[in-house]
Specification:
By secondary structure, the protein is an alpha/beta fold. The chain has helices at residues 21-33, 51-54, 122-129, 131-136, 158-164, 174-194, 204-217, 231-241, 261-266, 268-286, 288-291, 297-313, 325-335, 339-354, 361-372, 377-390, 397-410, 412-415, 418-426, 459-468, 491-503, and strands spanning 61-63, 66-76, 89-96, 106-110, 137-142, 223-229, 246-254, 316-318, 321-323, 447-451, 473-478, 511-514. The longest helix is centred in the middle third of the chain and has 21 residues, at 174-194.
Length: 519
């Protein structure tokens, strides 16, 4: 990709003065009333924001659970395209003030991944791990509509979610397939019935309009942005609808925001299998002296498969912990996101399963964390709401049964659940979210980060998104498959991000950063 957009000059990044209160009020009304059409593709512009939203005051208070943050609640329309229709929603927002007010450069908004992650308290960890950025920016966060302390979606109880993940998604018997489809249809129906009319408005496009109101209420004409995982889609959509509001943007571990959720999720079975076979199993074999799981990747993989087969015949049940085939898959999937923390925990949990009666308390506790906790009810409600609402899905379940069988054969770790997850969106109420086309038009250079073996936001999707987001620079992290690259131990990545955020120096072209290997 040829990148010719010049980086902003250092002089444009100097300190900003805060506007007076009178000036701020004028900025708010003017800023929020502007229609957002640039780069919007087929997304229609929202009408001017009613004064009751534009003139509200954020009542900042100490944030429960994060004493370094201030929190407030913001009212937003349920539907930005019809602000007078339906009840308001509440959006929980947070702020960490710049550690060095004299050197303050502006506001950095950060969002959470998922969809389904909670972002309200994340600025606290972010500024701890990225102190230079925390010194220069007010770092602000939020729980997006549908999750956390914001107006939340309700789909199923924890017990119903546990039932959804019970059994063995690889089981191809007619009875098992019928149960999977019935459970998926039930989940979709429960979401619609229990959402109180909220469900159609849980979309990325609605969320980014919430964010632009937040920007205006903060008194900022422009913001900078950091977002990992699904938050890269939030950032890319925001940049497409409001390019004139973006100063700098870092998109870390990128979903395929240039296409549909269906297309993106169909690529994940391959990438999770690649991470499992090419990264985790070699690591596990290299640590055979500790975990005794096989001296070669092939031996370790065969032993994992034997354990899975044994759990199919006789799931492990110990108190509140149940480990069957799907739980083994889920724990393995979760551990693949981060090598430094995930690989040792998964290896210890696998070793404990090999001799559960003889496992000590620490090993059992590790297994409980790895196999007993996966996607909770709150996360799944938001996950399915956004992924099923944002873009249309194929609704023919026979297509998904065939794709599920193919993925199970080729990429069983995640491929086995293709039918279960896709059948939810195939059974979802028809989405009405406007399409947002990501082009990069009108944006300053945007910085994108991605590791080559990221299991969730796979590199192939990042390349496609990079091509769509014209003027972006892609930092490729080699020798690594971690999900989320900043802040982290890679000095090459850190230097690229902080030179960009703090001094406005984007790489002149795409950049490759070798990764230090975890022991």
């Amino acid at each position: 990709m040829n990148v010719t957009t010049p980086a902003p000059s250092a002089s444009s990044l100097g300190r900003r003065r805060r506007p007076s209160l009178a000036g701020m009020a004028a900025v708010l009304l003017a800023a929020v009333a502007l229609p957002a059409t640039a780069g919007a593709g087929t997304a229609s512009a929202a009408p001017a924001v009613p004064a009751r939203y534009a003139q509200q005051q954020l009542a900042w208070q100490p944030c429960a659970g994060a004493p370094s943050l201030e929190c407030a609640t913001m009212a937003v329309p349920r539907d930005w395209h019809h602000p007078a229709a339906g009840p308001d929603l509440s959006i929980a927002v947070s702020r960490h003030r710049a550690a060095d007010p004299a050197q303050r450069r502006g506001t950095l908004l950060m969002a959470a991944g998922g969809p389904g992650g909670k972002g309200l308290l994340r600025p606290a960890d972010f500024v701890r791990d990225a102190p230079a950025v925390g010194a220069a920016y007010d770092v602000v966060g939020f729980d997006q509509r549908g999750v956390g302390r914001s107006t939340a979606a309700v789909c199923e109880t924890p017990e119903e979610v546990q039932a959804f993940f019970a059994g063995d998604f690889r089981d191809a018997s007619p009875a098992a397939q019928d149960r999977v489809i019935a459970d998926s249809r039930k989940l979709a129906a429960d979401c619609e019935q229990r959402s109180g009319g909220l469900l159609p408005y849980l979309t990325t496009e609605q969320t980014v309009r919430d964010l632009d109101l937040f920007r205006a209420l903060l008194g900022e004409r422009k913001i900078s942005y950091y977002g990992p995982s699904y938050a890269t889609m939030i950032g890319a959509y925001y940049a497409s609808l409001f390019p004139h509001r973006v100063e700098r943007m870092v998109l870390d571990s990128n979903v395929g925001f240039d296409g549909s959720w269906e297309r993106f999720q169909l690529g994940q079975p391959m990438s999770f299998q690649r991470r499992f076979e090419e990264d985790f199993l070699p690591w596990l074999a290299a640590h055979d002296s500790t975990y005794h799981y096989g001296t070669t990747p092939a031996e370790a993989g065969a032993r994992w498969e034997r354990r899975r087969a044994a759990l199919h015949d006789a799931p492990l049940v110990d108190g509140t912990l149940t480990v069957g085939p799907n739980q083994l898959d889920n724990g393995t999937i979760k551990a693949l996101y981060r090598e430094r923390d995930g690989f040792p925990a998964l290896a210890a949990a696998l070793a404990a399963l090999e001799d559960w009666p003889g496992a000590d308390r620490t090993a059992r506790a590790t297994a409980q964390l790895v196999f007993g906790q996966y996607l909770d009810a709150d996360f799944l409600a938001e996950f399915f709401a956004v992924t099923c609402n944002d873009t249309a899905w194929t609704r023919d379940l026979s297509v998904w049964a065939a794709r599920g069988a193919e993925n199970t054969a080729r990429y069983p770790l995640v491929g086995a659940r293709t039918l279960a997850f896709a059948a939810v969106c195939a059974s979802w109420p028809a989405p009405a979210a406007p399409k947002v086309r990501v082009t990069g038009a009108g944006l300053p250079p945007t910085l994108m980060l991605n590791s080559v073996h990221d299991p969730a936001t796979y590199y192939e999707a990042a390349l496609s998104a990079h091509r769509a987001l014209r003027g972006s620079r892609l930092v490729t992290v080699t020798g690594n498959g971690d999900h989320g690259q900043y802040p982290g131990p890679n000095t090459c990545v850190r230097d690229a991000v902080e030179s960009y955020l703090l001094a406005g120096r984007a790489p002149e072209q795409d950049l490759t950063c070798p990764s230090p290997r975890a022991s």
